[in-house]
What we know:
Distance between the termini: 85 Å
Helix content: 25-40%
Structural class: alpha/beta
Oligomer: single chain
Radius of gyration: 23 Å
Strand content: 15-25%
Bound molecules: N-(aminocarbonyl)-beta-alanine, zinc ion
Number of helices: 16
Shape: globular
Amino acid sequence: MGVAAVLVLFLASFAASAEASALHLKGGVVVNADQETLADLLIDNGKVLEVGPPGSLMAPDAEVIDASGKYIMPGGIDTHTHLDSLFMGQNTPDDFFSGQAAALAGGTTCHLDMVMPQKGGDILGGYARYREAAKRSVMDYSFHIVITHWNDQVEEAMGKLVEQGLQSFKFFMAYKGKLQVSDELLAHAFRRCRQLGAIPLVHAENGDAIDKEQQRLIKAGITGPEGHQLSRPPIVEEEATFRAVMFANLANVPLFVVHVMSRGAMEVIAKARTAGQRVIGETLASAIGLNQSLIWSSDFTTASKFVMSPPIRTEEHRLAVRAGLAGGALQLVATDHCGWTSAQKALGRESFLKMPNGVNGIEERMHVAWQQLINSGLASPSRFVEVTSTAAAKVFNLYPQKGVIQAGADADVILLDPNAEHTISASSHHSKGDINIFEGNKIRGKVVMTISQGKVVWDGSSLHVQRGAGRFLPRPAFGDLYKGLDERDAIRSAEMYPYGPVPVKRDLAALHA
Ligand code: URP
Ligand code: ZN
Ligand code: ZN
Ligand code: ZN
């Protein structure tokens, strides 16, 4: 992060946030997932008060914001981030303050962070640590809880967490010997999620196959970042995605597949959806915005920037996934923001096995998605809103508090100028890492204002955030994705057990006669 950016961030953190005044946005195009309309918008007390035809709203005391020539859209929701996290022995540079400030500067106003396990596996204790760390928050947030082992206490803890408003649990099918769970655990946990009305999330890669490939490559002397790439080909992602989808079908539970990076995995999801299964595919800004070419750079620092799991793939995969996101094969785009410093990446200089996996994106996602979906002609602004905000709110039961601009919704709103041009760079970003995977990317379309909880927190060049202003969002279980599942259970049961779910009576004694 550049010195100027540091200064802005620090000044911002101490400046008292502007008194909450009503805002009157005039002359913009209000975009929701279902339509765009020329409309004015009144915001008061952290909420959208009214949306009406141009010139129709009266609010003499409100601060007027000229939105002409701009899109007014729901703030972005990032369904996948790692802030203030310990992963692969390293602490992420971004905490809830710096990561969220960066998010706001990029038009994201809400996120769901991964609660990674504590040493010793205390799930409730681990969750409490994240709640504490999130007291620094500057925007609204919630959590997914990562489960890495299984016993009665875990099942019980899952129930308690659901009661506290957590309704999503994440399972890693990779990172063998560390985070990876067995098929047995998945099968059991999916049933438990079904019971609780919760949504299982999977990191779908075959960790056993990857482990074998890693040993083979290291033996062959391929120890650089390209070894990471070669050890995780698309097929290991596709296989694990298929397995997770089948297990979810078995348990009749909705499934959320995080970071879909390859065409094959996307097609598995699309096929399941076509068959009526409730599978949600999340792709990433890195998947639609970048290909793997720089992993092969002879400059170690450059190559190491892009090491993440599953890997950023070839141009063929990028184009397929981007089109799938635009066209509906995939449902939303997140970041998996887990940015590292170049010094942390250099821990893997002797072996890619020691390099912290992960990339930045929380600040860049909205701009990358706009560039890739809108400027490519693949999608409408409404579809952009759907995949960056509305779908996330619906899947994770935050809708219509979030994900839509309508009376009564939270006033998390962005203004995007479709003609403003800018270039992404680590020298001007607000995350703490000194590297940016989108370095040099030219973007047409810029978030020139972010409103969070009804206050202007980003004015296009400076942040005006307040430490502690962010709120934890409880999310009830049995959301929209659960509607109808009981009926589906009953129908499937009737098909499987034509005479009821009871054993067939047989006269075994007759066998011995
Ligand atoms: O490489 C990645 N994706 N790092 C973050 C952890 C994960 O797998 O989501
Ligand atoms: Zn059980
Ligand atoms: Zn992952
Ligand atoms: Zn992740």
